[in-house]
Amino acid sequence: MTQPTDIRGEHLPTALSLAAAGVPVLPLRAGKVPFGNCPTCAKNACGGRPNMKTPGPCACPHPCHGWAAATTDHRAINSPTWQRAWREAAGVAYHPGGAGLIVVDLDDAEAIAWARANLPATRAVSTARGEHWLYRGVMQSANRVRPGVDIKSTMAYARWLGPGTGTVTALPDAVRGLTVKQPAPARPVVVTVPASVGGGACPHRTPTYLDRGIAMAEQRITEAREAVHATVYRTFLAVLSTHGRCGCLTDAHAARLFTAAQAKGESPRHCTDAWTNALTTLGL
Protein backbone atom coordinates (compact mmCIF):
# COMPACT_ATOMS: atom_id res chain seq x y z
CA MET A 1 0.00 0.00 0.00
CA THR A 2 2.95 2.32 -0.53
CA GLN A 3 1.91 5.59 -2.14
CA PRO A 4 3.82 8.65 -3.43
CA THR A 5 4.20 11.54 -0.98
CA ASP A 6 2.34 14.83 -1.24
CA ILE A 7 2.49 18.22 0.48
CA ARG A 8 0.44 16.92 3.41
CA GLY A 9 3.00 14.32 4.36
CA GLU A 10 4.14 10.93 3.20
CA HIS A 11 1.74 9.10 5.52
CA LEU A 12 -1.57 10.50 4.28
CA PRO A 13 -1.80 8.36 1.12
CA THR A 14 -1.13 5.23 3.17
CA ALA A 15 -3.84 6.25 5.63
CA LEU A 16 -6.35 6.84 2.84
CA SER A 17 -5.55 3.48 1.27
CA LEU A 18 -6.05 1.69 4.59
CA ALA A 19 -9.31 3.55 5.26
CA ALA A 20 -10.61 2.54 1.85
CA ALA A 21 -9.98 -1.08 2.86
CA GLY A 22 -12.04 -0.61 6.03
CA VAL A 23 -9.14 -0.14 8.45
CA PRO A 24 -9.63 2.78 10.92
CA VAL A 25 -6.48 4.95 10.99
CA LEU A 26 -4.92 7.78 12.98
CA PRO A 27 -1.61 9.66 12.79
CA LEU A 28 1.23 8.93 15.20
CA ARG A 29 3.82 11.45 16.30
CA ALA A 30 7.43 10.71 17.20
CA GLY A 31 7.76 8.01 19.82
CA LYS A 32 4.87 5.98 18.36
CA VAL A 33 2.31 7.88 20.45
CA PRO A 34 -0.94 9.61 19.38
CA PHE A 35 -1.28 13.36 19.18
CA GLY A 36 -2.19 15.00 22.47
CA ASN A 37 -5.51 16.63 23.23
CA CYS A 38 -6.26 19.88 21.45
CA PRO A 39 -6.98 23.00 23.60
CA THR A 40 -10.72 22.29 23.51
CA CYS A 41 -10.21 18.77 24.83
CA ALA A 42 -7.30 19.57 27.18
CA LYS A 43 -7.46 17.74 30.51
CA ASN A 44 -10.43 15.80 29.16
CA ALA A 45 -12.69 18.85 29.27
CA CYS A 46 -14.73 17.23 26.49
CA GLY A 47 -15.61 14.32 28.76
CA GLY A 48 -12.99 11.84 27.62
CA ARG A 49 -11.41 9.64 30.27
CA PRO A 50 -7.78 9.97 31.39
CA ASN A 51 -4.96 8.80 29.10
CA MET A 52 -7.23 8.91 26.07
CA LYS A 53 -8.36 5.31 26.64
CA THR A 54 -11.96 5.98 25.67
CA PRO A 55 -13.58 8.69 23.56
CA GLY A 56 -15.49 11.52 25.09
CA PRO A 57 -18.95 12.60 23.96
CA CYS A 58 -17.60 15.62 22.08
CA ALA A 59 -17.53 15.95 18.30
CA CYS A 60 -13.95 17.20 18.21
CA PRO A 61 -12.63 17.15 14.61
CA HIS A 62 -8.99 16.84 15.70
CA PRO A 63 -7.15 13.48 15.82
CA CYS A 64 -6.55 13.91 19.53
CA HIS A 65 -8.31 11.02 21.25
CA GLY A 66 -5.81 8.20 20.85
CA TRP A 67 -7.22 4.97 19.46
CA ALA A 68 -10.72 6.46 19.63
CA ALA A 69 -9.76 9.00 16.93
CA ALA A 70 -9.18 6.21 14.40
CA THR A 71 -11.57 6.51 11.47
CA THR A 72 -12.25 5.30 7.94
CA ASP A 73 -13.97 8.58 6.99
CA HIS A 74 -11.98 10.04 4.08
CA ARG A 75 -13.50 13.48 4.72
CA ALA A 76 -12.14 13.52 8.25
CA ILE A 77 -8.76 12.13 7.24
CA ASN A 78 -8.45 14.77 4.49
CA SER A 79 -9.90 17.61 6.57
CA PRO A 80 -7.90 20.77 7.34
CA THR A 81 -7.84 19.88 11.05
CA TRP A 82 -6.00 16.62 10.28
CA GLN A 83 -3.63 18.07 7.65
CA ARG A 84 -1.16 19.52 10.15
CA ALA A 85 -1.11 16.23 12.02
CA TRP A 86 -0.27 14.34 8.84
CA ARG A 87 2.54 16.78 8.01
CA GLU A 88 4.04 16.24 11.48
CA ALA A 89 3.26 12.55 11.72
CA ALA A 90 6.03 10.01 12.22
CA GLY A 91 3.81 7.10 11.25
CA VAL A 92 0.33 5.71 10.69
CA ALA A 93 -1.51 3.69 13.32
CA TYR A 94 -4.71 1.69 13.08
CA HIS A 95 -7.36 0.35 15.45
CA PRO A 96 -7.18 -3.47 15.12
CA GLY A 97 -10.50 -4.11 16.82
CA GLY A 98 -12.22 -1.66 14.50
CA ALA A 99 -10.86 -3.61 11.54
CA GLY A 100 -11.91 -6.97 12.98
CA LEU A 101 -8.34 -7.95 13.83
CA ILE A 102 -6.23 -9.10 16.76
CA VAL A 103 -2.54 -8.25 16.79
CA VAL A 104 -0.29 -10.55 18.79
CA ASP A 105 2.68 -8.26 19.42
CA LEU A 106 5.85 -10.36 19.79
CA ASP A 107 8.61 -8.17 21.18
CA ASP A 108 11.68 -10.36 20.78
CA ALA A 109 13.14 -13.55 19.35
CA GLU A 110 12.08 -15.65 22.34
CA ALA A 111 8.47 -14.51 21.98
CA ILE A 112 8.54 -15.32 18.25
CA ALA A 113 9.95 -18.78 18.97
CA TRP A 114 7.15 -19.36 21.49
CA ALA A 115 4.51 -18.28 18.96
CA ARG A 116 5.89 -20.56 16.26
CA ALA A 117 5.74 -23.48 18.65
CA ASN A 118 2.29 -22.77 20.10
CA LEU A 119 0.16 -20.71 17.68
CA PRO A 120 -1.15 -21.48 14.19
CA ALA A 121 0.56 -19.68 11.33
CA THR A 122 -1.03 -16.44 10.16
CA ARG A 123 0.01 -13.14 8.58
CA ALA A 124 3.24 -11.80 10.12
CA VAL A 125 4.53 -8.23 9.98
CA SER A 126 8.13 -7.46 10.90
CA THR A 127 8.72 -4.82 13.59
CA ALA A 128 11.87 -3.16 14.87
CA ARG A 129 12.33 -5.82 17.56
CA GLY A 130 10.03 -8.68 16.64
CA GLU A 131 6.82 -9.36 14.75
CA HIS A 132 3.09 -8.65 14.72
CA TRP A 133 0.95 -11.74 14.10
CA LEU A 134 -2.51 -10.83 12.82
CA TYR A 135 -5.59 -12.98 13.42
CA ARG A 136 -9.18 -12.44 12.30
CA GLY A 137 -11.50 -11.63 15.18
CA VAL A 138 -11.99 -9.17 18.05
CA MET A 139 -11.03 -9.51 21.71
CA GLN A 140 -10.01 -7.45 24.72
CA SER A 141 -6.53 -5.99 24.53
CA ALA A 142 -4.02 -6.93 27.22
CA ASN A 143 -0.37 -6.22 27.94
CA ARG A 144 2.25 -8.72 29.06
CA VAL A 145 0.05 -11.79 28.74
CA ARG A 146 3.36 -13.69 28.81
CA PRO A 147 7.01 -12.57 28.51
CA GLY A 148 7.39 -10.37 25.44
CA VAL A 149 3.78 -10.80 24.27
CA ASP A 150 0.99 -8.17 24.14
CA ILE A 151 -2.51 -8.44 22.65
CA LYS A 152 -3.87 -5.45 20.70
CA SER A 153 -7.46 -5.41 19.48
CA THR A 154 -10.24 -3.35 21.13
CA MET A 155 -9.39 0.00 22.75
CA ALA A 156 -5.83 -0.08 21.39
CA TYR A 157 -3.81 0.92 18.36
CA ALA A 158 -0.98 -0.70 16.44
CA ARG A 159 1.53 0.93 14.13
CA TRP A 160 1.10 0.21 10.43
CA LEU A 161 4.35 -1.36 9.24
CA GLY A 162 3.21 -2.79 5.94
CA PRO A 163 0.93 -5.58 4.77
CA GLY A 164 3.22 -8.37 5.98
CA THR A 165 3.36 -11.88 4.59
CA GLY A 166 1.03 -14.84 4.84
CA THR A 167 -2.74 -15.19 5.11
CA VAL A 168 -4.74 -13.88 8.05
CA THR A 169 -6.34 -16.83 9.82
CA ALA A 170 -9.13 -17.10 12.39
CA LEU A 171 -8.46 -16.36 16.05
CA PRO A 172 -7.31 -19.55 17.78
CA ASP A 173 -8.39 -20.47 21.30
CA ALA A 174 -4.73 -20.40 22.31
CA VAL A 175 -4.65 -16.61 21.80
CA ARG A 176 -7.92 -15.94 23.60
CA GLY A 177 -6.73 -18.11 26.45
CA LEU A 178 -3.73 -15.83 27.00
CA THR A 179 -5.99 -13.23 28.63
CA VAL A 180 -7.80 -15.67 30.94
CA LYS A 181 -6.64 -15.05 34.47
CA GLN A 182 -5.72 -18.26 36.23
CA PRO A 183 -6.47 -18.54 39.94
CA ALA A 184 -3.41 -18.00 42.07
CA PRO A 185 -2.17 -21.20 43.71
CA ALA A 186 -3.22 -21.50 47.31
CA ARG A 187 -0.48 -20.53 49.73
CA PRO A 188 0.11 -21.94 53.19
CA VAL A 189 -1.77 -19.85 55.70
CA VAL A 190 -1.37 -19.25 59.38
CA VAL A 191 -4.67 -18.60 61.11
CA THR A 192 -5.76 -18.14 64.68
CA VAL A 193 -8.50 -20.46 65.84
CA PRO A 194 -10.18 -19.18 69.00
CA ALA A 195 -9.53 -21.16 72.14
CA SER A 196 -12.44 -23.04 73.62
CA VAL A 197 -14.60 -21.06 76.00
CA GLY A 198 -16.75 -24.06 76.86
CA GLY A 199 -14.23 -26.04 78.87
CA GLY A 200 -13.30 -28.18 75.88
CA ALA A 201 -16.68 -29.87 75.66
CA CYS A 202 -18.11 -29.70 72.16
CA PRO A 203 -21.89 -29.21 72.11
CA HIS A 204 -22.17 -30.77 68.64
CA ARG A 205 -23.35 -34.34 68.66
CA THR A 206 -20.79 -35.76 66.19
CA PRO A 207 -17.72 -34.56 64.24
CA THR A 208 -19.81 -35.12 61.08
CA TYR A 209 -21.79 -31.98 61.93
CA LEU A 210 -18.62 -29.88 61.73
CA ASP A 211 -17.32 -31.58 58.57
CA ARG A 212 -20.63 -31.01 56.84
CA GLY A 213 -20.60 -27.36 57.86
CA ILE A 214 -17.08 -26.80 56.53
CA ALA A 215 -17.96 -28.55 53.25
CA MET A 216 -21.04 -26.34 52.83
CA ALA A 217 -18.93 -23.25 53.54
CA GLU A 218 -16.38 -24.29 50.91
CA GLN A 219 -19.19 -24.80 48.41
CA ARG A 220 -20.69 -21.39 49.17
CA ILE A 221 -17.36 -19.70 48.44
CA THR A 222 -16.67 -21.79 45.33
CA GLU A 223 -20.08 -21.03 43.80
CA ALA A 224 -19.84 -17.25 44.35
CA ARG A 225 -20.27 -15.45 41.01
CA GLU A 226 -20.02 -11.91 42.33
CA ALA A 227 -19.19 -10.04 45.53
CA VAL A 228 -16.53 -12.62 46.33
CA HIS A 229 -14.98 -10.48 49.10
CA ALA A 230 -18.33 -10.15 50.86
CA THR A 231 -19.18 -13.82 50.39
CA VAL A 232 -15.87 -14.91 51.93
CA TYR A 233 -16.36 -12.65 54.94
CA ARG A 234 -19.95 -13.74 55.52
CA THR A 235 -18.95 -17.39 55.22
CA PHE A 236 -16.11 -17.00 57.71
CA LEU A 237 -18.49 -15.18 60.05
CA ALA A 238 -21.07 -17.97 59.82
CA VAL A 239 -18.50 -20.71 60.49
CA LEU A 240 -16.98 -18.91 63.46
CA SER A 241 -20.36 -18.01 64.94
CA THR A 242 -21.31 -21.70 64.91
CA HIS A 243 -18.02 -23.40 65.69
CA GLY A 244 -15.71 -20.72 67.03
CA ARG A 245 -16.59 -21.04 70.72
CA CYS A 246 -16.74 -24.77 71.32
CA GLY A 247 -13.15 -25.69 70.59
CA CYS A 248 -13.88 -28.15 67.76
CA LEU A 249 -12.65 -25.82 64.96
CA THR A 250 -9.01 -26.50 64.01
CA ASP A 251 -6.35 -24.85 61.87
CA ALA A 252 -6.94 -27.55 59.25
CA HIS A 253 -10.60 -26.53 58.96
CA ALA A 254 -9.68 -22.87 58.59
CA ALA A 255 -7.04 -23.72 55.99
CA ARG A 256 -9.71 -25.46 53.89
CA LEU A 257 -11.76 -22.27 53.85
CA PHE A 258 -8.70 -20.15 52.98
CA THR A 259 -7.85 -22.51 50.11
CA ALA A 260 -11.37 -22.22 48.68
CA ALA A 261 -11.21 -18.42 48.92
CA GLN A 262 -7.81 -18.22 47.23
CA ALA A 263 -9.07 -20.43 44.39
CA LYS A 264 -11.63 -17.66 43.71
CA GLY A 265 -8.86 -15.08 43.45
CA GLU A 266 -8.64 -13.86 47.04
CA SER A 267 -5.13 -13.14 48.28
CA PRO A 268 -3.79 -14.62 51.54
CA ARG A 269 -3.94 -11.11 53.00
CA HIS A 270 -7.61 -10.70 52.06
CA CYS A 271 -8.36 -14.07 53.67
CA THR A 272 -6.54 -13.17 56.87
CA ASP A 273 -8.27 -9.77 57.05
CA ALA A 274 -11.70 -11.35 56.56
CA TRP A 275 -10.98 -13.97 59.24
CA THR A 276 -9.69 -11.36 61.70
CA ASN A 277 -12.68 -9.09 61.05
CA ALA A 278 -15.06 -11.98 61.67
CA LEU A 279 -13.31 -12.82 64.95
CA THR A 280 -13.51 -9.18 66.03
CA THR A 281 -17.20 -8.93 65.11
CA LEU A 282 -17.98 -11.98 67.22
CA GLY A 283 -15.75 -10.86 70.11
CA LEU A 284 -13.54 -13.95 69.88
Kindly describe this structure.
This protein is α+β, with helices and mostly antiparallel strands and 284 residues long. Helix content is 34%, strand content 14%. The chain has helices at residues 12-20, 74-77, 80-88, 109-118, 173-176, 207-222, 228-243, 251-263, 268-282, and strands at 25-29, 33-34, 91-94, 101-106, 123-126, 131-136, 142-146, 149-152, 158-159, 169-170. The strands form two sheets. Strands 4, 5, 6, 7, 8 and 10 form a six-stranded mixed β-sheet that branches. Helix 6 (207-222) packs antiparallel against helix 7, helix 6 (207-222) runs parallel beside helix 8 and helix 7 crosses helix 9 (268-282). The N and C termini lie far apart (73 Å). Residues 1-8 and 49-54 have low confidence and may be disordered.
List keywords for this structure.
284 residues; alpha+beta; six-stranded mixed beta sheet; four-stranded antiparallel beta sheet; 10 strands; elongated
How are the elements arranged and paired?
Layout lengths: L11 H9 L4 E5 L3 E2 L39 H4 L2 H9 L2 E4 L6 E6 L2 H10 L4 E4 L4 E6 L5 E5 L2 E4 L5 E2 L9 E2 L2 H4 L30 H16 L5 H16 L7 H13 L4 H15 L2
Parallel strand pairs: 6-10
Antiparallel strand pairs: 1-2, 1-3, 3-9, 4-6, 4-8, 5-6, 7-8
